[in-house]
Fold each of these.
Amino acid sequence: MIDKTRKIHEKGSDTRNRIRGVLFDMDGTLTVPGALDFAAIKREIGCPPDIPILEYIESRPEWERPSLFAVLERHETEAAENSVPNKGARACLKALRDKGVSLGIITRNSLCSVEKVLRKFDGICKEDFSAIITRETALPKPHPQGVYMAAEKMGVHLQELLVVGDYRFDIMAGKAAGAKTALLINEQESEESPNGPVADLKIGDLRELLNYVG
Ligand SMILES: [Mg+2]
């Protein structure tokens, strides 16, 4: 445990002062995980458990997709309305903003859900984010397209950008774009593929980012 902490600290020191922008995943990162019941959505649209939802919908015939998206959007709207800011998320966002760090959100969710979720963040507004990348804006993670777009909107080089998420797709997208990455390990779950890319940082609370950024 001590060794692991030391390792993270060393990597953190290396990362410090090079990061000028932080790009956050939304569900399970800025918000408490579990609001979106992916298994229930998959059951309802007939998506096999091992296939991501958006990729499954895109694989279906064009005529079928609107009804599948409608199911997804119903679940997402409900989840966004019930969402709760994750531990330390508000404090982290406020502190980074006040340090002048450029902020962004990248999600496989819709812009409508992002707007609903951000209303739960007292003292934070949509305008605090230089980039909000949703599935309407870019190809979904793990594709890196959204990370490239975010960096441009945020006015930072990819090497100065930290992508933070709770799932391997976040790390894959960040790594593929050449950004730094941080994996948030929430209390009840850890989602990192053993064969997937390893994040530069591992954190248990978003406030830990303040040790590495700014
Ligand atoms: Mg997530």
Amino acid sequence: MTFFFETYGCQMNQAESSSVERLLVERGWAEAPTADESDLVVINTCSVRATAETRALSRISHFHAQKKRRKLAVVVMGCMAERIRDGLEARFPRLDRVVGMFERGTFEGIFRAIEEGADLGHAEEPASGGYLFAASSYREGTFQSYVPIMNGCDNFCSYCIVPYVRGREVSRPLADILDEFDVLAENGVREVTLLGQNVNSWRYVVRPGDAIPELDALPGGRPVAGSTLSFPDLVTLIARRVATARRIATAQRLATVGWIRFMSSHPKDLSDALIAALAREPVFCRLVHLPVQHGSNRILEGMNRRYTREDYLSLVSRVRSGISGVALSTDILVGFPGETEEDLEETLSLMREVGFHSAYMYHYNPREGTKAASLPNRIADEVKKERLARVIKLQHSITASRMRARVGSVATVLVESVSRNDPDELLGHTELGEMVVFGREVDRSAVGNFVEAELVSLRGRTFRARIVG
Ligand code: SF4
């Protein structure tokens, strides 16, 4: 039998789709070339923005209609499935199953029922409804993988729906995270991104029988049972586990994990201990994502971000002085209710002052159920779009000038794939996430490897490069 996934939203959703896909592959299913040829379509939805919900609804409607014409199972999962489950079931009665955020334990039963042609209404329900981390989110044949380390958020930024659909923060156990790194190392994964809505909230209480050798490597020595580990400890422990895997891989002349990233990191929670841990562990990429959202204290307060512009700038300076060669990326939200031209200027001036290497920029849209949705002084759509355009224009010019300054230098590049547009070209990216193109002189066997490359020229936001080692 065959499956097809349509995934919307963030990296966490992509990781969750990959883990559900693993379940199917382990049961003997294969990926269909297109949705229209598959026996099962899984739509993994996102609620963070209205546009993502609208797109998912239109795809659900499309497959719901197909069910009249052919044998097809349709399963909807993700944040929207959690948020409006009853509405989905009422509007699309032929949907086979809507799986909420805390019902991942039902997937085995659902897939078994589809295989047996049984009524999905009788698929087994899980005994309890907590969030379940998958054993692995690795997708066969890829060099990059996500590793979720926590789920949910307790911050309640006033514009954000995440705490309502993903629930309160829950941390993944330490041994499970380290074990997943073993799986990734065995499969030759080169780049890993640790995921969580706020990775700095990860916690683990050491248990008496914990037989994790890396615990001895913590700066203060092996912690006693009952002590609580936090994200900086996890950084050290993962780096040790990866170093062990690298020793084994090097002896066997195999490639292994070379870069680790993490996202997202709430600025109010990024500690000096984390800066020190990152500085000690070069396997963690020198690009830190630090979502500022806005440059005006008035708007930051309305957003309930719980830091000021001054706090943020002070953190930037500590990160820069603590981690040599680090670059910063960010998220910027424009058009929050009540935002004035002066507020926007504060954002633009903060962007100039920090000089972010890259940014994800978007404009505010109210999400029903959040505090900001009921705020007065909404900004008109055309004003939001015009302000966002100014923010994007400024960031593009900052990014371009930072990238121009790197032309002629040598950087490590992970070669990812053959270009779809030109099979003679290979594509890759740097530690700072910049796109790189190699010409026909580079052999395809470089795909999946780290290479040292001279960044020869820049077109748009893509380097052309040549391998020098
Ligand atoms: S930190 Fe704020 S923006 Fe991020 S997931 Fe939590 S509530 Fe949403």
